[in-house]
Amino acid sequence: MNSAVTILVVDDEPAIRRLLHASLARAAYRVVEAGSGRETLAAVQIDKPELVLLDLGLRDRDGLELIPIIKAAGAAVIVVSARDATDEKVAALDLGADDFVAKPFDSEEVLARIRAALRHRLASATGAPVLRHGDVEIDLAARRVSRGGEDVRLTPKEYGFVAELAKSPGRVVTHAHLLRTVWGAGHEHDVEYLRVAARAIRRKLEQDPSQPTLLRNEPGVGYRLQVEA
Amino acid sequence: MNDARPDPDALLRAATREAKGRLKVFLGAAPGVGKTYEMLSDGAARRDAGVDVVVGVVETHGRRETEAKVDGFEIMPRKPIAYQGHTLAEMDIDAILARRPQLVLVDELAHTNAPGSRHDKRYQDVEELLAAGIDVYSTLNIQHLESLNDLVASFTKVRVRETLPDRVIENAEIEIVDIPPDELIERLREGKVYVPDEASRALGHFFSKSNLSALRELALRRAAQAVDAQMLDYVRANAVGGTFAVNDRLVVAISEQAGATELVRAAKRLADALRAPWTAVHVETPRDAAFTPAESARLAEAMRLASQLGAQIETVPAESALAGLRQFAGEARATQLIVGKSRRSRWFELRHGSIVDRLVRDAPGLAVHVLPLTEAGTARTVRLPRLGEGWGSWHGYAVSLGLGAAITVLGRMIFAQGSITNIGLLFLLPVMLAATRYGLRTGIVTSLACSLAYNFFFIPPLNTFTIQDPQNIITVLVLLGVAIVGSQLAARVRAQALLAQASAAQNRSLAGFARRLTGIGSTDELAQVLCGEIGQRLHGNTVLLMPETAGLAVRASAPPGGRLAMLDDAAARWAFDNNKPAGQGSDTLTASEWLFYPIGTTGRVLAVFGLSRPDAGAPVRADQLPFLLSLLDQAGLALERIALAEEMADLAHVRERDRLRHALLSSVSHDLRTPLTTILGSLAEIRAMSPEQEDQLAETRAEAERLHRFVANLLDMVRIEAGALHRKIEPVDLAEAVASALHDLGTALHGHPVNVAIAADLPFVLVDPQLFHHCLINLIENAAKYGDPGTGITLRAHGDRQGLTLFVEDEGPGIPEGQAQRIFETFARIEGSDRKGGTGLGLAIVKGFAEAMGLGVSASDRADGRGASFAIRFPPGQLKELPPE
Does the residue A110 lie in any domain? Predict the structure, then answer.
């Protein structure tokens, strides 16, 4: 199924490119490499990748500038950055990046994120599937959340929260995006609404709310819904 | 409204007293009451109590009991000072400062030092000792007190020259040494009282019983006053009582007349009694220009005395004393005004009206105290400085007489036609011209010449000086009168103009000076300008000294290249160290040719400014002093401004350095993480060929991960120390934050089971999520590192009224004795813990991040003694209650 999928690896360090190339090739992706912003733009046009692994620290351009261009070309973007800055992650996600991975990364983790990002593309193409995590099922088409076969009663906001995350399972969704879509424009900074809702959702859906496995928090960035592939 | 607020001034006075040495004064009514003996007895008691006591100077005057008392003390050798062929032995203040005893005994506080000593007066030596933190015991007779000087002289008829400013004993503890007058007279008769030869002739009168009684009363009253003042200070500092409104402001008007100093002393007494701030003001009128040297000296002396007694001194220019006083009293919001009433003739008062009467009439709400100026013969009438004082210029005579001659010729021509009265009027022209333009004498000469010419050429009998008609005598008198009145009027106008000009010039000078200073950007340039401008304005040599690494050094001078002799240098240094003027015209090191003023603001001395005359005369006239002080005030502001600007420039450098450091940090971060990513990634790809390799691979992976954590910690630490933490505070759910941290830690927990006990209804904490995440990771990792293998880690939160506390507890060796603070230091690791594989940075990062967010961290042993417990405290301000559902 992966045979046709092309991934562009952008990093100015050849060693990193080689490393990613090897693990991606082993997962049967077609891999192309770019070492600069210029090469990236060319590769996006010529190779038409489905997904770009983008390092933000390029020598000739600010990686953030490339995100909208790549998105406009129809590819998913996963940001790979050595810089440990929350602001940068949020900025990248707001510009349309699908996810981010921090360096140093675990190859397995990178592959999992790639799968999540690609699945999102497939999902949006095929309509909403039913998502599963343990005994929890989220059926977006039926607007239904159940646990152990029984319906779980969520408030409209809680459901909106879960549904928004479920639209792109496994991917981080920023606080501002969640607040804007679920609570409405003007509430982008009311992070405590999210905290309250997250607490309630965990109480209703998690096995152990103190060690959540379904609704995961990215400190200072956003939330993600961890579902089975 | 709460009136029981401590008075800051009183608190300040109390605080200064704490830091400085304490002065105790043994106060007596007269010589011979046993002050020195009493002081030595008290000193001996302190010495026996273990206090380090030395005798600075004690005069035993050959009294045996006193000599016996001195014997037990360490006596500081005196310093010989050569003076006019004699050698005088004065107290050696430097030796005492070097010896640094706790208490020094100094006899005769009012003593005047030999010329060439550091200070003129012994009390100044004592003040320096006190400032150095050394306690001083001293003795004083009541008649030496400055403010009582006149009073004592008035009934004893003996005026003592050695006087002591009242402020010296204002904060001192005072012990009265008192014996009844009869006993003192008895002691005197027995020869037990030392009396200097030169004073003995006056003594018969001085030691009368009535005098001694009066002196005794004065001493007792003064001591009571001191106790009173100290009590009041205490009450104010501690706000014990009700209201102590000090609303009085006292102004004393100083003139050049004799008796001005008495006026000053009287003002001091009244100011003390009212506990009011006071100002001595001199109104500079046109008359000032005509002062004799003696009058100028008297004025300067009165102003100096006022300043010494603690008054603020001001000179205000005005057209008349009345106008000046009225304006100044209004501006200073004075409530009490003291003026002296000179013994002017009735005639004078009739003409001019009494200043006092008009003051009282014009200034309602002002209590006017009028004191008679005692010394007779001072009633110099107000005489305006007349224009062309002296005989005037040849030019004036030539012009005036020439005009007179021309009028005569013209008159002769008209005379041929008729009336002579009109011709007489014509002669007014040259007289008016001479009087108004060239002064009185030219006017009189011209009027005489004109009347003669008129008489000779126009009054019958013609061509003689004989006057037949008395009417013509009137014409001559009128011409003379016009000359006198005209010259007076013109002189007055001219004098006022000159005064206004002088005042305007001074203001212009100040404004110009200020403008000149604002444009200056460097200290060196400022120093040059200060010396040049002030030297030019006050017509003297100037020098500016500023502290450099090697001490105080000349920064600029006018004329350039100026250097200071050793004595002058010492005076400059003293002025700098003590923030007081020194040198000629001040109280200290008066032998110097220079007068030095400290420059600075807000109590910080930035530089010392020196002034001298090429002829080595007094550097500053008393009337120039306020002007000089205004100039120096501005100089101080400018210096401070430049100092601040230089600090700002330094700050800009620091910022630039920080920016570079930040860039370096990003680059290092990238350069270190990239190879680590490769290594870790490659390690993950490698498959082991044998169990041994599997172990090695696991080991290598663990080490690489440790290196990664170390790099991350190191970068965090650098960020903390560079102050480069970027904070974004938002509400965070503690349970959620802990869960994220545990998830990210993963295998680094080394299999320690984690027990989380955080209630679901706790308020959110206001922190930076990312920094807090790092805090938690480091704390939990630390617990995993030090907890014994297989033991649990507990995370629990506890809320109370003082906020919320998160505890991270392990089961390990606990915190070593006395290390609870040290373990949060950079690279601090608990001894013998190297094998634990810590980086020594984890806890320092926890502390740095936590403090950056306003949180407190602490470490202790667990209450149950099973291990260590680390706490993060969230104060109530860092909590956000849950919004209602």
Answer: yes
